Amino acid sequence: MARLFLKSPLAVHAPGAEGGLVVEDGRIAELVASGGAPAAPVDETFDAFAHVVLPGLVNTHHHFYQTLTRAHPAAVDKELFPWLQALYPIWARLDPHSFRLSVRLALTELLLSGCTTAADHHYLFPQGLGDAIDVEAEEARALGIRVTLTRGSMNLSQKDGGLPPDSVVQDEDEILADSERLLTTLHEPGEGAMVQVALAPCSPFSVTKSLMEKSAGLAERFDCRLHTHLGETEDENRFCEERFGCRPVDYLEEVGWLGPRTWLAHGIHLTTEECRRLGRHRVGVCHCPTSNAVLASGFCPTAELEAAGSPVGLGVDGSASNDSSNMMEAVRHALMVNRLRRGSASAVTARDAIRWASEGSAACLGRTDIGRIAVGSQADLALFTLDELRFSGAHDPIAALVLCGATRADRVMVAGRWRVVDGMPVGLDLARLRREHGEAARRFA
């Protein structure tokens, strides 16, 4: 394979790579020290003198379909439960064409923000959308972005005391059969995987205990990850106490989910002891700072979780509670929110927030081959320029990306191939996508 030298970057988020890095066969083959040169001949050189190079960002929680209902008047200015009650009947109208466009737009938006791996939590299966996860895999492969597609599920509807309409839930047998099918046909284990599948019952208040337990068994059998919403609101804690006689973390243990293959979305309303328990069992937590702020859900105890041993990653969450799919915005919001919660400007740095969005997120997904710039890692890279007015006068290029508010990458590489060039996705008509997605979204007004 050709050897590509990314030469003399303006800055790079990796010690020992100040002179650049060499990419070969989809991996990082060499780090070049400042003033140095590659140890072996290269076939191509890209002069990165104007670029700040980050590891490709990893988004560990999203709901792609929600790009169709951003800033929806039925749901703005509401907290989680009333927000869900307002939107579920609207989401029940999801159709295959609109869904495909929602996925394409979400993945494109993520790529443009420097994201190279995205995890989606899809749990809505109205009539005609039984192949939703297959559609997501097709769209991801076409764009060349890595994905962890979580086969979500809900089997408690309004008639069972749950929140979703009857039309979007499935029964346990159907959920488990499709989960096994997807793990057999789509899931790629091991290093360099482009498509992986995880199992993701939506939340304690939308699935049965039996489905949680059987999903854990299936994940053990296929050696895949487990994902769910947990500890997002106090309403959820009260629901668990009333229905199961325990708090959500206790419930996780009861159903066999308290282990290192699990990562949780949100993890806000946790006690100190619960943080310690999650850390002891190496349960990952995806911090969703923007969504948590929009819905006024609270603050994720990131310091307590990391101190206890839990991997902490970042997610944009759904585009109806964010309302964008931009990982660099999530990085900036994570910095601001965590400084505010901890009451100290030095408690969280720009580099900490980038670490959560890269190496921390990769750990949540159970991957060691992505999320950092190191020899042997996958060549997933996000390159940003500082040529906008907002960056003029910035002296620390890496900190400037976060503090000055970078939102769009100039170049993005996944598995050694350029997927964004000059700020545009390769092989995609952006104007057409915007037009078609906008037309589809009008159905959900």
From TrEMBL:
<keyword id="KW-0479">Metal-binding</keyword>
<protein>
    <submittedName>
        <fullName>8-oxoguanine deaminase</fullName>
        <ecNumber>3.5.4.32</ecNumber>
    </submittedName>
</protein>
<dbReference type="InterPro" id="IPR032466">
    <property type="entry name" value="Metal_Hydrolase"/>
</dbReference>
<dbReference type="InterPro" id="IPR011059">
    <property type="entry name" value="Metal-dep_hydrolase_composite"/>
</dbReference>
<comment type="similarity">
    <text>Belongs to the metallo-dependent hydrolases superfamily. ATZ/TRZ family.</text>
</comment>
<feature type="domain" description="Amidohydrolase-related">
    <location>
        <begin position="52"/>
        <end position="418"/>
    </location>
</feature>
<dbReference type="GO" id="GO:0046872">
    <property type="term" value="F:metal ion binding"/>
</dbReference>
<dbReference type="GO" id="GO:0019239">
    <property type="term" value="F:deaminase activity"/>
</dbReference>
<dbReference type="InterPro" id="IPR050287">
    <property type="entry name" value="MTA/SAH_deaminase"/>
</dbReference>
<dbReference type="GO" id="GO:0102127">
    <property type="term" value="F:8-oxoguanine deaminase activity"/>
</dbReference>
<keyword id="KW-0862">Zinc</keyword>
<keyword id="KW-0378">Hydrolase</keyword>
<dbReference type="Pfam" id="PF01979">
    <property type="entry name" value="Amidohydro_1"/>
</dbReference>
<dbReference type="InterPro" id="IPR006680">
    <property type="entry name" value="Amidohydro-rel"/>
</dbReference>
